[in-house]
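Side project, low priority. Logging it here so it doesn't get lost.
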Amino acid sequence: MDIILLERIEKLGTIGDVVTVKDGYARNFLLPQKKALRANNANKAVFEANRERLEKENAERRTVAEAAGEKVAGAEVILIRAASNAGQLYGSVNVRDMVAGLTEQGHEIDKKQVIMGAPIKVIGMHDVTVALHPEVHVTVKANVARSDDEAELQSQGVDVLAQLFEEEQKEIEEAAADTRIDNDGLEPGEIPAELLDEGAEAEAPAEDAAGEEEAEG
């Protein structure tokens, strides 16, 4: 379907451009949201008659959005969540969580303006995009942690997730070292003394039992 854009649409064009999109995208999103008009002769004439007004209104909205963007850009929302030792959340952080956090900080943000792509499912610092206007996008931070102390470390630039991984690897290595038998100095095929002692203890009861049977006989 050919349409006339009434505002800038990423990867499509800017206000006044005539572009071709899939029918479903136009009918279900662009046209109902008043982001575009069908590109027929009547609508083209209407758009050209109102082009100057539409461009002026768009510029005014962009100016307001830029002012708001200066205030919210770089904002950090701290979200304390339960997570496993590997940093995987028992749940997720979504758009509503971000909107609630930004609102608490005094920013007027609508959930339609927050672009996450997918819910956050691991602790750490995550970039989240806020589209205040088709031409004004800013980035805020989602600081997802298991505690306030952990969140503070992440705010300072510490990669807590990497630390968790290193600690886990260290524990695995230490556990392996504790259970490793030192075979230094043994001849090929020689059994370690530790195993010989254990074997002797295990065989002792059997030998005692054999002696008792002979005595009874």
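Brief comment: The chain has a mean pLDDT of 86.
Revisit when time allows.
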